[in-house]
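Person: Please work through this fold.
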Amino acid sequence: IKMADFKGQALAEHLYQILLLLFAVGGFGAGYILQSFRITVYIIAAGTLLTSIIVLPDWPFFNTTPIKFIPEVRASSTDNNTNNNSNNNNSNSNNKAVSTTTPQQQHRKKNNKKK
């Protein structure tokens, strides 16, 4: 899904605010001069519709500075094997006690005992 970048989102927000304000002021002014509340409502409604058509779709001018994401980093195969082994140990349905230490922790314990 293609989306507007951050600068495009800021531009859309500014356009939204400016256009709605202009139509609200223009609608109020026209309604005041013509002494018609109906004209005020029609102008503001038309301004809201036009502003929505301009701001809501993902137009190309909202995507002038695309976002560059960091490439995906995959875990090494030894990390995956360690995780798989610990998951397999924890999923045993036997009632015997299961060691919750990782192979690295077991290795450290052995090395500490030798010293």
Q: What stands out?
A: The chain has four helices and no strands. The radius of gyration is 32 Å. The longest helix spans residues 6-34.
